[in-house]
Amino acid sequence: MSDEPERWTQATVHPDMWADPDDDPRDSGGPGPEGERATLLDFLAHYRATLRMKCEGLDAEQLARRSVPPSSMSLLGLVRHLAEVERDWHNWIRAGDPLPKLYGVRDADFDGAVGEPGAVRAAFADLAREQAAADAALAAHPDLGERVGEDRIAVRELMVHRIEEYARHCGHADLLRERVDGRVGQ
């Protein structure tokens, strides 16, 4: 007898998918967006939605469940981490003193991910707020080649870096979710 969950998917059309195409909110069914900025924003929205989907249907304890020792990674930790990262990107864009860390010391985003409903609500609220702040800061700079912040980082580079960060962590979320309840899919 094993403690490992059995692999499963909700999809019935394609067994390697998370959800059937008609039920997948990421699939617009039409052509992709026009233009570079719109394409970048579409990819970012897709990965943000994927992260939310990987967390859906789990309780606080499941969201905070760690992967395998010695890692402190959990789905809730990823949500908290991405909130912290969004704040960092906002700090790269804005002038003046940086906003303080959301969770304090290094790795507190993962280490402080506890299986309590209030902690889950707070983490998702933090993520939504920090995403909106970084989005608004970047929207004020429509030229993708413009260099912003003290480090003079190109807006394009920040946008691509955001997509890369979410894509990488969605890969982690795939494995974490499978470890929690066996659900698989893209």
UniProtKB/TrEMBL annotation:
<dbReference type="Pfam" id="PF04978">
    <property type="entry name" value="MST"/>
</dbReference>
<protein>
    <submittedName>
        <fullName>DinB family protein</fullName>
    </submittedName>
</protein>
<feature type="region of interest" description="Disordered">
    <location>
        <begin position="1"/>
        <end position="36"/>
    </location>
</feature>
<dbReference type="InterPro" id="IPR034660">
    <property type="entry name" value="DinB/YfiT-like"/>
</dbReference>
<dbReference type="InterPro" id="IPR007061">
    <property type="entry name" value="MST-like"/>
</dbReference>
